[in-house]
Amino acid sequence: MSELPSGWARSTLQDFSEVRLGRQRSPKNHHGSNMRPYLRAANVGWQGLLLNDVKFMNFTENEVDTYRLQRGDIVLSEASGSAGEVGKPALWNDEIDDCCFQNTLIRVRTHYANPRFLLHYLRYEALRGAFAQDSRGVGIHHIGSARLAQWKIDLPPLAEQQRIVEALEDHLSRLDFVESSLRNVTARLSTLRDKITGIATTGGVVAENRAAAKIHEVGIDDGPLPLLPVGWRWSRLGDIAHVVGGVTKDSKKQNDPEFISVPYLRVANVQRGRLNLADVSMIRVAPKKAEQLLLKHGDVLLNEGGDRDKLGRGWIWEEQIPDCIHQNHVFRARVDQSVLHPKLLAWHANGFGKRWCELNGKQSVNLASISLSKIKLLPVAIPPPDIQQNLVSHIESRLSVADAALETVEAGLLRAAALRRAVLRRAFSGKLVEQDPSDEPATVLLDRIRSTRPARGPRLQTRRPSTATKRESQAVQETLL
Hints:
Blueprint: E1 9-12, H1 13-16, E2 17-21, E3 35-39, E4 44-45, E5 48-49, E6 55-58, H2 61-67, E7 74-77, E8 79-80, E9 89-91, E10 100-101, E11 105-110, H3 115-127, H4 130-134, E12 141-142, H5 145-149, E13 152-155, H6 158-200, E14 210-211, E15 228-229, E16 233-236, H7 237-240, E17 241-244, E18 260-265, E19 270-271, E20 274-275, E21 281-285, H8 287-292, E22 300-303, E23 305-306, E24 314-316, E25 325-326, E26 330-335, H9 342-350, H10 352-360, E27 362-363, E28 368-369, H11 372-375, E29 379-382, H12 385-427, H13 442-452, H14 467-480
Parallel strand pairs: 3-10, 18-25
Antiparallel strand pairs: 1-13, 2-11, 3-6, 4-5, 7-9, 7-11, 8-12, 14-15, 16-29, 17-26, 18-21, 19-20, 22-24, 22-26, 23-28, 27-28
Helix pairs in contact: 6-12
């Protein structure tokens, strides 16, 4: 165990804070005479609170007293389907009157520490994966209020906490500016790539007159079709490619002894303009089905479902993994390469196709999708065969410049993230600011808290501070917040 800096004390959250799980949401509380706004996990982001969609439910007066948020409270996500999101914290500053919180959040209310210091510490624990490592559950990862209450923390003196906050926020604000600027560059480069491919795949780089080209009507809204150069034409995807859906996972048949195990691509593997093959799952299917869905070099993969802006996104399969097939939420378009180069189709689908799929897709409560029959109707611009290879080379040469710039930006973001972790690590190991011998040691504060605790009474996470200590803690909070 490492030696503590001078004046620091090893403790747990419950030694100096109240830790409480929020109120459970129930259908009976959807209506009532005492409706109050409440926070849930969706309202907590990495950069702070997200208050554009705050829900309401009914609370009794006693429940309001228990679950009302106060200035200086910290709320953390208690659970998530993604382990890395567990424990993500934000600071409450009375943004909404009489706001409460749901049981997807845990509230940390500290009467004896600097809330901003504690916020940065908890965020550091979440960012470095400590909460994820300690979470429990299958599918949904939980940290739990009891485990959080016992979370170990090396506590500096109050005065040093304030110095750490000031130094830390100065460093982090500079990093925030750098990262924000780099992300803006990333967004602009993404827009530039879309413009390069969008213009090129509809003839924008050809120095010829452009005119409206007809496409046979199929009773669907194509939106405005771009003008095409002379010699180009519009066609429907189903007329130039064999388009099929993939395998549907059936858990009941996974133990069939006649089935074989093969890798298969999911929506997460098929990104816009690239394939993410870091995590490819396996599935057991009938040998005939595996043969029917076997991916071949040049197949264009297009997503069937997900968020609305992700419909139709995809890229080309280049046989990176042997014997690979695809899921039912991923379409395979095997284009007739004598008619169209597969890369031109993929670029076109990611540009014009994105807008077309948004226009023609179907939206359910949480999921958007586009059917196989509709994706076959996607309008596709067909250049003359003799110019297609030169067109592909033209696009790739320009994309390579944008990609090189993007690599530089991504390297900068990685360096900024590493520097952020290093600054936080120094802050919480006592190396960011100097210790002052005149600071009241944290052990004195903790001893004073213990002296006010009843000999036999409720746990600290539900205990109210005494009147004297509450006056002291309120004075501290007014100074620190």
